[in-house]
Amino acid sequence: MIWRFLTVENIIALQAEQIDLYGGSHGLRDFGLLESAVSRAKNKVNYEPDATVPQVAASLSWGLVKNHAFIDGNKRIGLVSLIVFLGANGYRSVKSPMEESAMVLRAAASEITEDEWTAWVERSVAPLA
């Protein structure tokens, strides 16, 4: 498989777009935390060669939600990056925006573990038709 990874620049642009659309403060709080979150996807593939697209997408989005690299919109960028990464790699979400939002809120509040997040993502996607 040829992976299509999101870059730090992609994530910054997506986050700015979300802030423009839905409000909040622009800006990066910690570039290192952003790099760390974005690197999770490549690290997952490098260290777990059998990782699936949903597992890699879950790792990326978890890092973005939990690292709080941005001043505002960390949950939003976690969810948006999940959807964009899935789409770029041949998958789509089959869950409603309400359920997606509820799960991101649970992740951010540490009500679920990363393994539970990953399992939910795996159950929540389908290949693009």
Automatic annotation (TrEMBL):
Q: Which Gene3D superfamilies match?
A: Fic/DOC protein, Fido domain
Domain Fido: where? 6-123
Q: Which domain of life is it from?
A: Bacteria
Q: Where is coiled-coil annotated?
A: none
Enumerate the GO terms in the molecular function aspect.
kinase activity
Which InterPro entries does the protein's record reference?
Doc, Fido, Fido-like_dom_sf, Type_II_TA_Toxin
The cross-references to Pfam families, in alphabetical order and at most eight, read:
Fic
Q: Know the name of this protein?
A: Death on curing protein
